[in-house]
Amino acid sequence: MSKGLSGKVALITGGAKGIGRGIALRLAQEGMHIALVDLHEDKLKATQAEIEACNVKASIFVADISQLDQVTAAIEDAYSKLGSFDVMINNAGIAQVQALNDVTPDEFRQITDINFGGVLWGIQAAAKKFQTLKQKGKIINACSIAGHEGFAMLSVYSATKFAVRALTQAAAKEYAHSGIMVNSYCPGVVGTDMWVEIDQRFSKLTGAKIGETFKKYAEGIALGRTETPDDVAALVAFLASEDADYITGQSIITDGGMVYR
Ligand SMILES: NC(=O)c1ccc[n+]([C@@H]2O[C@H](COP(=O)([O-])OP(=O)(O)OC[C@H]3O[C@@H](n4cnc5c(N)ncnc54)[C@H](O)[C@@H]3O)[C@@H](O)[C@H]2O)c1
What we know:
This protein is α/β, with parallel strands linked by helices. It has a single domain, classed as Rossmann fold, CATH 3.40.50. Helices cover 47% and strands 15% of the residues. The longest helix is centred in the middle third of the chain and has 29 residues.
C-alpha cells in the first residue's frame, strides 16, 4: 500500500477510460475516494461502478477541461459529494498526428486548448481550492516522453507536452509556500484508444499498414513490451503518496526505456 492515501479524495480528468481509468482503479485499491471527470456520462458511469466495487466512494461529473468554469465546477462537485479534495490529476488529453506543413489554426487551437489549457486551468482551480481550504495538496499532470523530446508528425502534441513540463516547474515554485506539490508523469507507448487513433492517423498520412506504427514504436522499447495503464498508475500512486512528499516540479518518465533523461 502507498503511504497516506487511504480515505483521501483524488479527482481524475479523463478518468472514464484509458490511463485515467487505470489511475482511478489503482488509487481506489489504495483506499482513495475518486471523482471522475470526463466528456461522456455513459463511460463515466461504467468506470464509477468499477471504482465502487473497490469499496470506496466515486462521483462523476461531465466537463470539458478546456473550460476553466467547468473545471472549477468539477472540483466543487467532488468536494461536496466526497467531503474532501486532496489530489488533482490533470490526465485528460488528446493526440494529433499531422505533418508540420499541414497543421491548421483550428487543429492548433483545439489541441492547445485541451492539452495545455486543460492542465493550466486544472492547476489553477485545484491550487485555489487547496488555498481556500488552507490545506496541503498534490497536483499531478499528464505529460509524455513527447514532453522531453519532439516527435515527427506529433509536433504540436509534443509542444503541448513541453508546455505541461514548463507549467509543472513554474507551478511547483509558485505554490511550494502553500504546501502544494506539482509533478507530472511521462508515459511512453501505452496501449489505449489514443494509440489506436495515432496508428490509424499515421496509416492515413504515410501509407503505413494498420498496426505498423505501433509496432515500430514498440520495437524501440528496451524492456521489450508496450506500457499498460497499470504501469503509469504505479508512478502516479507513488507521486500522490507521502513517500513523494519531498518531490516537486518533476516530470518523471515511465516508458520502459525509450527516452533517457
Ligand atoms: N497513450 C499513450 O501512449 C500516452 C503516452 C503519453 C502520454 N499520454 C497522455 O496520457 C493522457 C491519457 O491518455 P490515454 O492514452 O488514456 O487517452 P484516451 O484517449 O484513451 O483517454 C483520454 C480521456 O480523456 C478524455 N478527454 C479528452 N478531451 C477531454 C476534454 N476536453 N475534457 C474532458 N475529458 C476529455 C476522453 O474522453 C478520454 O476518456 C493524455 O493526456 C495523453 O496525452 C498518453
